[in-house]
Amino acid sequence: MIYVINQFDAIHAFDVHTHRLVWQRSLVGELNSVGDVAADANSLYVRSYTHHPINQERVAFIALNAANGQIRWQQQYSFSGTYIQGNILGTYAGTLYIDEWNGTTGTFYALNPSNGSIRWQMPLGDGQTQWGITIVAPAGPPF
User: Fold this and answer.
1) Which of 82, 87, 86 is nearest to 55 (CA)?
2) Are the CB atoms for 11 and 38 separated by under 8 Å?
């Protein structure tokens, strides 16, 4: 499957072999904008968010059925601060990884991809530095 998100925050899933549209879904009704995405064999994981007055952002992490676009689960979070960011980092070995930055601290989360529950979490950084890029990769020898 190839997933494309357009400027109107609609997700389109195309069959990689036939190049035909399999499904499409707008998440604008869920929140306002679609951000990061990651995928595994069964699901497409999407960060959707909206901005609220007084520097508050609501972030939802949504798992869609890869075959038909139906919502499998949705977890919403509300963070407050001068700068807010939540990112989907990727999937590896049956775990979905996300991070969150609230302006002073960051947290790295490992989620159960079947329901979005938190398996474990740990603080990121020294409270002074925002993490810009995190890559989830298997352990092993370098290339």
Assistant:
1) 82
2) no
How many C-beta atoms lie closer than 10 Å to residue 120's C-beta? 9
Hey, where are the domains in the chain?
2-124
CA-wise closest residue to 66 among 134, 123, 16: 16
Cα(89)–Cα(83) distance, integer angstroms: 19
Q: Tell me, what DSSP letter sits at residue 9?
A: -
Residue 14 bridge partners (DSSP): 2, 21
Tokens of 18: 């036939």
Q: How much is the pTM?
A: 0.77
Task: Compute mean pLDDT per 10 residues along the chain, 143 residues long, and list them.
Answer: 82 94 80 73 84 61 92 73 63 85 75 91 69 59 55
Q: What is the CATH number of domain 2-124?
A: 2.40.128.630
Query: CA 13 → CA 7, 26, 69, distances in Å?
Result: 15, 12, 8
CA dist., res. 5 & res. 11, Å (int): 4
